[in-house]
Amino acid sequence: MKQQFKHLAALAVLTAAASAAHAQSSVTISGLLNVGIARGNNGQTQLDGTSANGRFAMNDLLSNFALSGKEDLGDGMWAGFQLVSFFQVDNGALFQNDTLFSSRSVLRLGGRFGEVYMGRSLTPANFQILFYDPWGWNASSAQVGWQIQTANYKSTSYLRTNNTVGYVSPQLYGFTLSLAHSSGENALSNDDGAALDYKNGALSLGVGYDQSHGMTNGPTKDHMADVVAAYDFGFIKPMATYTSSKVNNVSYRAYSLAATAPVGVQGTLKAAYGRLNDCACVVGERAALSKISLGYQHDLSKRTALFANLSRAKARTLSATNTVEVGIQHGF
Question: Considering the chain, what is the average pLDDT of its residues?
Answer without folding.
Answer: 90
